[in-house]
Amino acid sequence: MSGETGSTPPKRPVPGPPRGLILAAGAGRRLGRGPKALLVRMDGLTLVESLVLALLDGGCRDVTVVTGACSEQVARLLAGCDRVSVAFNPDWSSGMGSSLRRGLQAIGPGIDVMVTPVDRPGICAAEVARLIAAHRPRAITAASHCDANGSLHRGHPVLFDESWTSQAAAAAHGDVGARDLLATHRAVVDLVDCSDLDDGADVDVPKDLHRLTVVSSRD
């Protein structure tokens, strides 16, 4: 007998691969080309297809795509894709916050979730894999990228430990998403430099369309 009087506390289960969440509900009004999810890159992939491949090839177990504007077109595009589901957000016009809440609701609690908006053409499988490898239990892990001055800035994707997903959903509002949560709890946010893989830029206005010329990477 060891003489121990207390029982060993149960260990937290080792989490499996995270689930991917793509926020693809916007109408792309500032861009003027329709929903960004349907923009076609130089390699022939739409933005939503390229992100689905990056998340799955990088190690996510499956991917949920939140749709809104032109939801039927996006759903048809993804129909038959293995390990991909679509969640329609009826409140998509209220901003990204409602899409984040809808996506996390569709995935459910107790699961690590990697989140990205659909307008990031540079995200690749190697970047996703790097975040998963760097992730610590109970932390939030975010890709970061250097600007022209060499300063590192938090970007996407962002990997939320399952202990943070409900708080991320509760904090989401308007077009903010999880930005306020990340700023408030920056002590638990691990930044992973991915500048060698992706410049972190989005496609938001017409002058950004040149970013669709990125070459697909499935490393």
From TrEMBL:
Molecular-function GO terms, alphabetical: nucleotidyltransferase activity
Taxonomic superkingdom: Bacteria
SUPFAM superfamilies in UniProt: Nucleotide-diphospho-sugar transferases
Keyword NADP assigned: no
Sequence ranges assigned to domain MobA-like NTP transferase in this UniProt record: 20-186
Disordered as annotated region, ranges: 1-20
Keyword Transferase: yes
Keywords on record: Transferase
PANTHER family, per database record: MOLYBDENUM COFACTOR CYTIDYLYLTRANSFERASE (PTHR43777)
Name this polypeptide is given: MobA-like NTP transferase domain containing protein
Source organism of this protein record: Brevibacterium linens
Lineage of origin: Bacteria, Bacillati, Actinomycetota, Actinomycetes, Micrococcales
